[in-house]
Amino acid sequence: MIHYVCKYTPLELFKGFGEECAVLEEMPENFELSDQIAHANLCGFGKSVIQAVLEGKVEQLVLVNCCDSMRRVYDIVESTGKCKFSGKTFDRSGFLNAFSHEPVDNQPYIGVLGVRVSGILEKMIRDNIRMDVENLTCTGGRRLAVIREELEKMEDDAMFLAYADALLSQMPCFRMNNSTRRNRLYLDPNLKGIIYHTIKFCDYYGFEYASIKRDIKVPLLKIETDFTSQSAGQLLTRVQAFAETLEGSEDMDPSKGISEEIRKKMESGVYYVAGIDSGSTSTDVVILDKDGKIKSTMIIPTGGRKRPCGPSRTIGFRKEDIVRIVTTGYGRAYIDSGDDSITEITCHAKGAHYLNPNVRTVIDIGGQDIKAISIDENGAVKNFLMNDKCAAGTGRFLEMMARTLGLSLEEMSTRGLDWKENVVISSMCTVFAESEVVSLVAQNKDVADIIHGLNVSVASKVGALAARLGKKNPGEYMMTGGVARNKGIIQALEEKLGAKLYICDEAQLCGALGAALFAYEKCNAAR
Question: For 369-429, where are the alpha helices, taking DSSP H only?
Fold first, then answer.
């Protein structure tokens, strides 16, 4: 088996030599072996190639001289002596039989652009996008404008020249010297959205993404991986949220999914709907009555015992009177009682609009991620940005810093308001920031000054994310999630944004509220 990494690889020629070919799309769990012989800043795909070779999963490999990383990979792989090529006799008929004509399907589709995607990532995208998905990255979209019957009539020299011309005349990769023909991709009327994939430490595709973001009007989602199997799983929420923003998404259709049994319960005139937001820190519940008014709320520490939400009061009701439950949050897949599942991005947008229709940018600092969500006048998601691969600036970050200082989160939320010296926390990495805090304590720096420095560092990270959306979508900012109770973070973030944040008592319940509203709308549409 010959493995290859680029659509310009002459697959048909290899088949003429009796070889089978397959895309190398190995996504290892880690780079334990490749890190021993490759530079730390080599792109994730380059490391994955080396890892596959060292693990004995590749014996014959075709690399294309498309960037410095691939040239480095070639040198490293060659030095291992693990790849070989066995000479075989060329068979013209085998070469010609490798050509097949694939009809063009003129249907609406989502295009996956940018750098190569693995089979794991591509499958995850296809499973969560209710529309055709076309892989237009390095190894996808391989089409040769050549007809087998015409090649059969040619002598060998002319046949190989025609083949080479067809191979090199494919839609150009962005790495080509002249890639202007790629504009055809973006102007296709059937293109309904773009998922743009980049790999950590690869700068090639940043320029193309910038031009697409500036000029293309269809929905656009940028995702980045380090080309490990774990990184693909971390993108699930982003892809699902993107799917929910697409026109015609079945999951968001309020007219579907109401059974006759539920309709009969609703006819009784007494019924409730519920939204459950299961996050990494807490699981929040909001129950609405038949008029869409909040009837009951609860916050349950995820994995812990129940505790009621501070300003809200729980009102008794019968479980059988709940006619629909919508779940959201990272733990939504583990809640068996849910009728629908919608991402927390869409639910936070819905809940924020309900609480304040003037809000256009929602900032949610969760236990393990940060989200900035741009919404329209109807509460629908226009765009969103996330930081979900590092604890920096999240609720977990604040918990660790509070623990290091020997304070509760409640104490930490107000202690930094009385700061005097502007202490700078230079590192946003949770581990390194903790070391800085320990060092500052050893220097007898005032705790209030240290906390203020932490608040500013969090605000800088979160503010940069939110500002990228808010500048193009003027309107009020709203902060949701448990960190919205931290007065020091709010003050520092308002200074960074140059705008006031809308904070309400239901801030932590915003995701569950949005989920409950989706449940209510679906039931209301069936009445």
Answer: 395-405, 409-415
> Amino acid identity, residue 415?
R
- With a CB cutoff of 8 Å and minimum separation 6, the contacts of 412 are 398, 401, 402, 405, 451, 486, 488
User: Which tokens belong to 294?
Assistant: 């909040």
- Determine contact, residues 525/518, Cβ cutoff 8 Å: no
Query: Residues of 276-289 as b/e, b for ≥16 C-beta within 10 angstroms?
Result: bbbbbbbbbbbbbb
In this structure, which amino acid lies at residue 334? Answer: Y
- Say which range, 56-65, 320-329, 388-397, 499-508, has the weakest mean pLDDT: 388-397
The β-bridge relationship of strands 272-278 and 322-328 is parallel
pTM above 0.90?
Answer: no
Helices of type H across 443-499: 447-470, 487-497
DSSP symbol at 431: H
pLDDT of 389 reads: 63
Mean pLDDT computed over 136-164: 85
Pairing of strands 272-278, 282-289: antiparallel
Which two structure tokens, joined as six digits, stand for 227?
A: 């080309």
Q: pLDDT at position 259, please?
A: 67
Cα–Cα nearest to 195, from 170, 222, 213, 177: 222
User: Once rounded to an integer, what is the mean pLDDT over residues 154-160?
Assistant: 91
User: Parallel, antiparallel, or unpaired for β 109-114 and 132-135?
Assistant: parallel
* Helices within 129-257 (DSSP H only): 148-152, 156-168, 183-186, 206-215, 229-233, 236-245
Q: Which helix (H) or strand (E) holds 207?
A: helix 206-215
Residue 304 has pLDDT above 60, yes or no: no
State the residue for tokens 């334990």: 32
Amino acid sitting at position 304: G
Confidence of residue 326 (pLDDT cuts 50, 70, 90): very high
**Longest C-alpha distance within the chain, in Å?**
86
What is the average pLDDT across 65-86? 82
